[in-house]
Amino acid sequence: IQLRQICEEHIRYQILQFQEDSLDSVLFLKKIDKCWQNHCRQMVMIRSIFLFLDRTYILQNSMLPSIWDMGLELFRTHIISDQKVQNKTIEGILLLIAKERNGEAIDRSLLRSLLSMLSDLQIYQDSFEQKFLEETNLLYAAEGECLMQEKEVPEYFHHVNKRLEEETDRLITYLDMSTQKPLIATVEKQLLGEHLTAILQKGLNHLLDENRTQDLSLLYQLFSRVHSGVQVLLQHWIEYIKAFGSTIVNNPEKDKTMVQELLDFKDKVDHIIDICFMKNEKFVNAMKEAFETFINKRPNKPAELLAKYVDSKLRAGNRETTDEELEKMLDKIMIIFRFIYGKDVFEAFYKKDLVKRLLVGKSASVDAEKSMLSKLKHECGAEFTRNLEGMFKDMEVSKDIMVQFKQYTQNQNFPGSIELTVNTLTMGYWPTYVPMEVHLPAEMVRLQEVFVTFYLSKHSGRKLQWQSSLGHCVLKAEFKEEKKELQVSLFQTLVLLMFNEGEEFSLEDIRQATGIEDGELRRTLQSLACGKARVLIKDSKGKDVEDGDKFTCNDDFRHKLFRIKINQIQMKETVEEQISTTEKVFQDRQYQIDAAIVRIMKIRKALDHNLLVSEVYNQLKFPVKPTDLKKRIESLIDMDYIERDKENPNRYNYIA
Ligand SMILES: *[C@@H]1O[C@H](CO)[C@@H](O)[C@H](O)[C@H]1NC(C)=O
Ligand SMILES: *[C@@H]1O[C@H](CO)[C@@H](O)[C@H](O)[C@H]1NC(C)=O
Question: What GO biological process terms does the UniProt entry carry, in alphabetical order (predicted)?
C-alpha cells in the first residue's frame, strides 16, 4: 500500500510537464510516449524488486491488483484521464492519420506505440476508436461524392482498391486489430455501398461493351464486398444483356449477321462470367433468362435464321472448318436453340434445307448431320426428329437399292447411255411436292419403267411417284471450241436436249415439247440464257423471258471449268418458299391448338375459360397470343365441338 502511495505521487508529478499549451502536437505526442515508456520501464523494475510480494501476498488477495495492473491504473487515472491531455493525445493521433491519408509521411512507430498504450490502458475503444471511425466516415463520404463526379469508373475502382489496401496496411502497422471490421466496413460503405447504382449506370455498359475483363473482375470483387452489391450488379447485368441482345435480334437489317452475332455475344458473356464473375451461378441463370427474353421478343425470325445458319455450316463447300470445330459450333448453336420458344419454325426450315442437302448430295459430312440430329433429338424428343430421321433412313435405303439396281441392269444387259440414280423417298417424312407432269425423252421413260419394274418386284404393293421438280442430271455437251459437262436440273435438261434436234425454238415450242409449267419454264430459260453461264442465246434483250422470245444454242460458249453447274433461278422462289414455310408452320400450329382444346375438353367435359386457357398453354410447345387462342375457341364453337354454357358465358361444355 505504501508502494502505491509513492508511485502515485511520482506519477502526479509527471502530469505537470503536459500542462503547457504551447507544445506542437507531434512533440506533445512524443512526450507522452516517452513518459509512457519510462513509466513502463519503471514499473517493470519495481515489479522485479517486489517480485516476491507480487507473487504471494498480492496473488492471494484477490481484492488487490498486481503491481503491473496498479501501474496501469495509476497512469490511467492521473495522466491520461486528464481531459486536456487525453484530448490532445487523441487529436494528435487523428491528425497524424489524416496527414498520412493525405499522402504525407508520418512517424508510424510513434503511432503504433501510442495506440498500443491506449489498448493497454483499455481506453482504446472509448477514447480513440469511436472518433477515428467517425472521422473515417466523414472523410470517405466526402471523397466518394467527389470522386464519383470526377473520375471514370475504372479509375474510381482503382482508387477504392488503393484506399482499401492502405487501410488494411494501417491495421497491420499500427491500429488495433479489433478495428478491422468496422474500419473496412466504413470504407466499403462510403466508397462503394452508397454509389452502387450510380457506378453501374455510369460505367457498366461501357466495360461490357469493351470487354474490359480486368476492370470487370475488379468490379465484381468490390461489389461482392458490400451488402446487396452482387444483387444490384446482377440486375444491371440482366438489363444489359436484354438491351444488347435486342439490338442484335430486332433489327431486320442485321438479319444476315444475326446468328453469328448471337454466337459471338454468347461467347463473350460466357467468358465474362467465367473469368470476371467467378462463374457465379446466379449470373449464368440470369444470362439464360435474359437471352430467352430478348430472343423471343421477335417471333419466328431467329428460329428461321438459326436453321439457315446450320444449313450453311453443314453444306458442302464450307470446309474451312474441321469436324471438331464443326461439332463445337453445333453445340453452341444448340444452346441458342434452347432459348427459342418456336422450335417448330426451326424444324420447318431445318427440314427444308436438309432436303436440299440430302437430295443434291451437298451435305458436308454425314457424321455432322447425324450429330446434329442426335442433338435435336436429345433436346426436343424423338417425336421432333422422327421425320428427319426418316429422311436419313430413306437416303441410306436408296443407296442399297441403287447397288441392287445396278446389278439387276447389268445382268439383264440393258442397253442405254444414261446412268440413273433414284432416291426413294417415303411420303410423310419429306415435304409434300406438287407433282409436275413433263414430257421426258423416250429413253428416260424406258429407264424409269425398268426401275419401277425392278422396285415393285422387291416391294410389291408400293406406289411410286416421280418428282420431276427434284431431278437433276449431268449432260455432256460439245460446243464448237470446248467439251463440257453441265450439271443441271431435270427441267434444264429437257430444254437443252431439244437443241440436239434443231437450231432455234420459241418459248411456245419449248413449252409444248417439254410440258413444263409456264412459270417454271420461264425461270428455267432465264437460268440458261441470262445467268452467269449462258449456254443458250435469247433473241431479245432483257433479263426476263417474254412471250415470243426465241432461243438458239450458244455454240461459241466458253468457260474456264470443265464441269459447270448452272443454278436454277431461285431468288423469287426463296422468298415465296420462306413465306410458305412460315405459313405451313402457322397452320400446323392452329391444328395443334384445336387438337389440344378438344383433347382437354373431352376429358374435362366442362371448363371455365381461364382454366382451359392455362391447360392449353401447358400442353403447347410454341408461343400463342391469347387473342389467337380465343379465335380458335370461337371457331371450335362454330364447328360444334364445344359450346358456351347457357348460364355462364365464361364456361364451355364439350359436345360429344
Ligand atoms: C475534450 O473533448 C471533449 C469532446 O471531444 C470536450 O467535451 C471537452 O470539453 C474537451 N476537454 C478539454 C479540457 O479540452
Ligand atoms: C474478351 O477478352 C478476353 C481476354 O480477357 C478474350 O479472351 C476474349 O476473346 C475477348 N472477347 C471478345 C469478344 O473480344
Answer: DNA damage response; DNA repair; protein ubiquitination; ribosome biogenesis; ubiquitin-dependent protein catabolic process
DSSP letter for 363, please: B
C-beta of 268 in contact with ligand 2 (< 6 A): yes
Which of the residue ranges 14-28, 389-403, 424-438, 639-653 would you say has the lowest mean pLDDT? 14-28
Of 474, 492, 472, the C-alpha closest to 484 is: 474
Which-ligand-closest: CA of 211?
Answer: 2
* pLDDT for position 337: 94
Q: Is the pLDDT of residue 158 over 80?
A: yes
Cα 24 to ligand 1 centroid, rounded to whole Å: 18
Is the Cβ atom of 315 under 6 angstroms away from ligand 2? no
Q: Which CATH architecture has domain 471-565?
A: 2-Layer Sandwich (3.30)
User: Among residues 270, 293, 144, 161, which one has the least CA distance to residue 218?
Assistant: 161
570 lines ligand 2 (CB under 6 A): no
- Least confident stretch, 8-22, 247-261, 373-387, 458-472: 8-22
Task: Name the closest-CA residue to atom 14, ligand 1.
Answer: 84
E strands, 479-543, in order: 483-489, 504-506, 536-538
Tell me what percent of the residues of the chain surpass a pLDDT of 90.
48
Q: Whose CA is nearest to atom 9 of ligand 2?
A: 268
334 with 379: CB under 8 angstroms?
Answer: yes
Q: According to CATH, what is the number of the domain 576-654?
A: 1.10.10.10
Residues of the chain with CATH 1.10.10.10: 576-654
Q: Which ligand neighbours the alpha carbon of 207 most closely? A: 2
Q: With cut-offs at 50, 70 and 90, classify the pLDDT of residue 342.
A: confident
Give the Å distance between the CA of 83 and the centre of ligand 1.
6
Domain boundaries 198-394, CATH class: mainly alpha
Q: Which atom of ligand 1 is nearest to the CA of 84?
A: 13
Q: In the chain, where does the domain assigned CATH 1.20.1310.10 lie?
A: 2-196, 198-394
Question: How far is 598 from 266, CA to CA, in rounded Å?
Answer: 41
pTM for this one?
A: 0.78
Question: By CB neighbour count within 10 A (0-12 exposed, 13-18 middle, 19+ buried), where does 310 fall?
Answer: buried
> Is the Cβ atom of 271 under 6 angstroms away from ligand 2?
yes
Determine whether the shortest distance from the Cβ of 261 to ligand 2 is under 6 A. Answer: no
Q: What is the CATH number of domain 2-196?
A: 1.20.1310.10
Q: pLDDT tens digit string along 9-39?
A: 787 777 777 766 667 888 889 989 999 999 9
User: How many other C-beta atoms can be found within 10 angstroms of the C-beta atom of residue 607?
Assistant: 22
Average pLDDT over residues 520-549: 89
Q: Is 263 exposed, middle or buried (0-12, 13-18, 19+ CB in 10 A)?
A: middle
Alpha helix positions (H), 419-517: 442-458, 490-498, 507-514
Ligand nearest to the CA of 94: 1
- Distance in Å, CA 274 to ligand 2 centroid: 11
